[in-house]
Amino acid sequence: MAKKLRKSNQERQENKKNELNKIQELNEKIQQWDIKPNSSMTLQAKKFSDLPLSPKIIKGLSDNGFTKMTAIQQHSIPVSLQNWDILASAQTGSGKTLAFLIPILEKLYKMQWSEYDGLGALVISPTRELAIQTYEVLLKIGKQFNLAAGLVIGGKDLKFEMERIYKMNILVCTPGRLLQHMDQSTGFDVSNLQMLVLDEADRCLDMGFKKTLDAIISNLPNERQTLLFSATQSQSLDSLARLSLSDYKTVEDPTLRNIVSAIKDKDNKTTTPATLQQSYCTVQLPKKLDMLYSFMKTHLKAKMIVFLSSSKQVHFVYETLRKLQPGISLLHLHGRQKQTYRTDVLDKFSKAQHAVLFATDVVARGIDFPAVDWVVQVDCPEDVDTYIHRAGRSARNGKNGKNLLILTPSEEEGMLKRLNARNIEPKRLNIKESKMRSITNNLQSLLFQDPELKYLAQKAFISYVKSIYVQKDKEVFKFEELPSEDFAKSLGLPGAPKIKFKGMKSFEKAKELKNMSRQLLLLKNADENGEVNTKKDKQVKTKIDKMFERKNQTVLSEHYLNLTQPKTDKKGDDNDADSDDDFMTVKRRDHVLVEEDLPELLIPTSKRAQKKALSKKQILLNQGSSKKFVFDDEGNAKPAYEVLGEAEFAKDGDLETQLGKFIAKENELMKTADIDDKNIAKAKKLEKKRKRQEKERMLQEGYYNSDDAESEEEIRYVVGTGNLDDDMVSDDEDNKATRKKVKYSRSGKDSDAESDAGDNVIQIENPETLEDLESLTAKLLQG
Questions:
Q1: What ranges does the record list as Acidic residues composition bias (predicted)?
Q2: Quick one: how far is CA 123 from the chain centroid?
Q3: Which domain holds residue 746?
Q4: Residue 527, SS3 per DSSP
Q5: Tens of pLDDT along 408-448?
Q6: CA angle 97, 98, 101 (to 5 degrees)
Q7: What pTM, to 2 d.p., does this model score?
Q8: Same-domain status, 28 and 134
């Protein structure tokens, strides 16, 4: 047994030695690689197997269908494997994710990284969706490696992440949640970090993460390899590169034009693939929803993403078009949704063959949706970079795709001028308004039936108008030319809601804080000692509380505001005078607590004690029972549940005596009730018997015929002499009362029935005038 163990240990050591030798060979090959642009070695490497990569990564790539390299992968991976810092830019959908995941896995594998070495690589993504997508790709291609990978994003269980984050070797995260773990997770150590990756770095800066990234980078070790990947480059990105990169190389792929026939701008920094068909159309603002609905109805077999400027618009358009049932699956995605729901939407849309996704710019960058046929930009993007990233959701990885930009007449000239400056020339599409289907009447009907939908329409109108107001490019976004009333009617509203505009600084601040996490906001508002008052944030707020805290409540009707806000006169006092405007107005009054109502020696000395003393439980303990009163005939109040004392109870005798009296009294009441029930039952039985006898008598005398079309309700009895009670009790026909029967005929022509009935039957036509009634009365008296 010992020999076998020794043999296995020897085999293990030999395998490890062979693996180290292979790693040494890979390092020598990669150092000999010519990383110059357009070098023969780089141009000849078309597949991943042509690069000096480990067999584990080659197997992980081939198992998932990754064999050929894209341009950015072909030029950036060899540079990264030589441990250079990289500032890379490439078109959207060019495979940047694999361009930095492969160097991460290769570097940690060559260093023989294990779970005991701590965090080795860090990937920072601007959005949760992009982080989830990167993490899923990492799990697919890294199955052969003995490394622990983790995903840290907002919306997940923070405590669950804290318990496991110190065991991770590779971490994919968003900036806000990463900084939160750096501040709060005690076991989280980044001192041994080997590689940092900033994916979509320009997007991180656009979303207001600049200070967050600066704080993160300041906590990381200086001796590390840093990779910055982006589709665009800006001055802020250059400043971030100078801060985080030490000795780096810029990878812009000069052969990109020949490989994918890309269209580049004059600065050679932003690209869009040639397989993307770009077009635009000009539509009046009130006709935008009609245009969108008509476009969807004519493309039911397509998979498209519809971009809108705000989450309120996304929510409203999704809810209204979902009720109109265009005939295609509808989904919506924006930043205000919960993370679990956003993940489900991404998964459903990725798997769907024909669907429409209404979304904000939260999915405009980095997200790789398979086989997107159309990208429809309903609202004009704020700049050309946003346009490029939106359009980049289609025509990815060399596939065909189409993009449609919908502009208003005021936006057309300025936006096309900026697109042409970047060598982007979309084709104009002429829309026939005669074939466009209008849904304005349908929206008005929906808003009339559903008040919540009307409220969404108001918020969508306000958010769109404010988004135009805060834009910096006033040559494209002309706020003064907005047709507010017509636009409101196109949403189904009776008129344009009132909007209170603040200063531009407040809007810019709100835009900056829009995507900031709550935890970062708390840290920003912390006092000098670093203490954060979270008591307010821990309070549970209902929907009603949030509604009353809204700053822009003028979107609601004035009648609703009258119900919630008390009216005051010019002096500020409540106006008690009756008027038409005060009808159904709730006037709130503060009720003063009287200390006499409180129990003795329990007068509260604090708010907490006061609340406890006034609780129902404490009142019951102090008083012994509730004070529910009933009123007698004279109006005197008496307790409904009166509890007697022991002495007062003993006056009527002991317990057994009073119990016997109570039982005897209840027995008498039950006997009386039993007699009444028997009398009622006997009366019902006699009545039933009387009806049966009357029916038999009518059959004998020929007055009743079951086949006759006339009903029994047309026969009326005139009671003569005799006692009705005797008829009900006695069965003898001699004692029955003498009755005269009057039979009314509708036709007046049934002479046979009159002759068979005898002298006691008077048959006439149905009386219609006063003379007919008088003659009928005379005949009855004579009979």
A1: 724-734
A2: 29
A3: 706-782
A4: coil
A5: 999 999 999 999 988 888 999 988 877 888 999 999 999 99
A6: 90
A7: 0.51
A8: yes
